[in-house]
Amino acid sequence: MAKKRNVTREDGRIAVQVYLGRGEDGKRKYKTVYGRTQKEADEKALQVKLSMRKGIDVTAERDTFEDWEKRWLKAKAMNVSAGQLTAYTSCGAHLVRAIGHMPISKIRTADIQDVIDTLADYNPTTKKPTAKKTLRQVRMTAAQVFQLAIDNRVLDYNPASAVKIPEKAPQEKRRALTKEEQEWIINTPHRAQRAAMIMMYAGLRRGEVIPLTWTDIDLDKRTIQVNKTVEMIQGKAVVKNTAKTDSSLRTVDIPKVLVDYLRYEKEKAQEADKVKILRPLVCPSAKGDIMNSRAWASMWRSYISDLNLKYGDFSDMEKRPKSKFIPGGVPMRIPNITAHWLRHTFATMLYMAGVDVLTAKEQLGHADVETTLQIYTHLDSTYKRRSMDKLDAYLSEEGKIQSIK
């Protein structure tokens, strides 16, 4: 692997060529490195040789991060939902904006850390500090782009693996409903109530509730089969006969409160249709067909408005609003309950009931147990006293507590 030395450029730098082998055209290929001194140039040449011995493709080191991010997104587009691809594209855009121009081989952990720290302070899209969940997604995107380069023998380490999420970054405002708020869902009839009850007591995602049919629900066995999902593509609902991931294909065991509610709703739907053959969708649009993004948003706004009118605190107003259609609208006095909050409520119920993390993973349809563990770990910090109470109860039942004299 001969190299040519002492080629001095006009700018005073010394160039050293490292022989790389012959190309597909049979011609000899070299890589040129530069140094202010012969020692510096030789050291760089040695690093090239060491990389080659590891199998690294040193000819691709000039490829930028943006080049590899585009390759990664192209591969992802074939295997993920439209919504997930949009999320990946957004995370990639943050990275490309900051380090996209840099050769991927030159990027270090500190460069990615700077991106994360900057986003933690200010997100140019939202004009606010970036939530920890989003920062983790950006870090994961960077890690996967670098891993693609590693798999293609362009790099031998992943600089994103050591990046830390700042503690000061805000947590995403997603929480479980309180007992009082759960009662709101149970006691307020509305076209959206079926969806809300299913998300709160079975943990289904919005995209899993929309295409749900009555044949997917076995009230005698107390189960719901999750076997399809809806993707909103340019506002239109596209049903896929598969779930979000393989793990999302699942059978969810449901509690008696949901069984009783759905049994009543099924009988009510049959009476409304004046036949014994139900319309297939459990949560159809106002027209009876599958909901698109606009139909869902309209239904949910109406539902939250009804909850607000019924349960909101309007003691500071001269008169309590009697209709949600008053001029100027009714001031929002309750939290903006979302589908994510209802699903998180189900996860919290599983935790509070003592359901183990692996069973919770299956019930929630998480792709990996780490996602469930993050929820359980967060709840552990919130309900730490409850965990110790369980230990006290166990020790007491087993007769293991001895009086100390």
TrEMBL record:
Keywords: DNA recombination, DNA-binding. This is Site-specific integrase. Belongs to the 'phage' integrase family. InterPro entries: CB, DNA_brk_join_enz, Integrase-like_cat_sf, Integrase_catalytic, Integrase_recombinase_N, Phage_int_M, Tyrosine_recombinase_XerCD. Residues 172-389 form the Tyr recombinase domain. Residues 63-150 form the Core-binding (CB) domain. PANTHER family: PHAGE INTEGRASE-RELATED (PTHR30349), PROPHAGE INTEGRASE INTD-RELATED (PTHR30349:SF64).
